[in-house]
């Protein structure tokens, strides 16, 4: 079956299996959620039940994917402890290259994996990976980014558009407080060939336009590094000296952009907000350098993707799509949400072998 791929309201997507539904509701309510499936009966399983799981990630140089991988492994360990199943998870680093990700998929299939959890390098390249997996009878759960087309078991996605909109609203408010009549901004985005990137851009654009401003220029990330973002930000500031605000769509861009903003001497008058979250981003919010960040919950997303995949392997019915809320973090509410951030956003505890080819 080809499933819908766009962001949908969380309320319409949280009606699946009780453990997942309750977990996402708790997360949305601002409560820490250590694991899925707590206290729920599991099917009787043979002690020799064995699953090999491949996580195909765009690039482990980006902390977000490390956090999502950690969530996958957390849930695999919990399931193994509860059921006696033997579950191994191997990360395949695609180094932000579609050809490498396709080769990783082939390598994982050759190794005899039971399940692929896929975070595509781009939505346009995902169908080729999905087709290869389908031809070889390997089920796929998509964790973030999305696909232009193709068949898969389930799709776990953040509320990208709403999260970017909420961060954008704070950005507009803070710019108005500084006397900016037109809330014009510049921006660094993730690839706009990714569905999640398109949705983030849609959300921030709506917020800025509602504030009477516009996004005067944006540049897309290619390497997803701080050094790249620092250079891009310097270029954007030079080309657009009259902007009042700046927005970035991923963590490494935020950290690189801040360096460039400080070097430009505009740290005091340029209002800065972002999407995604890391321990370093939290510190920037604590210091007031970031006025807001809509943080995804990659650890929670990984837990859900793993649970859904195991349900499918055991013949259980699963939801076609699960939307995981973002958490809007500001200096004002940081103390209230910080414990949750350390559970569902950025802990890294587990380890795994990581093929790089």
What's the topology here?
Layout: H1 18-28, E1 50-57, H2 63-83, E2 86-93, H3 98-110, E3 115-118, H4 126-135, E4 140-143, E5 154-158, H5 160-177, E6 185-189, H6 195-210, E7 215-220, H7 226-239, E8 245-248, H8 251-264, E9 271-275, H9 279-287, E10 292-295, H10 298-313, E11 321-324, E12 327-329, H11 334-344
Parallel strand pairs: 1-2, 1-3, 3-4, 4-5, 5-11, 6-7, 6-8, 8-9, 9-10
Antiparallel strand pairs: 10-12
Helix pairs in contact: 2-10, 3-4, 5-6, 7-8
Word description of this protein:
- The chain has 357 residues and is an alpha/beta fold.
- The chain has helices spanning 18-28, 63-83, 98-110, 126-135, 160-177, 195-210, 226-239, 251-264, 279-287, 298-313, 334-344, and strands at residues 50-57, 86-93, 115-118, 140-143, 154-158, 185-189, 215-220, 245-248, 271-275, 292-295, 321-324, 327-329.
- The longest helix is centred in the first third of the chain and has 21 residues, at 63-83.
- Residues 1-46 have low confidence and may be disordered.
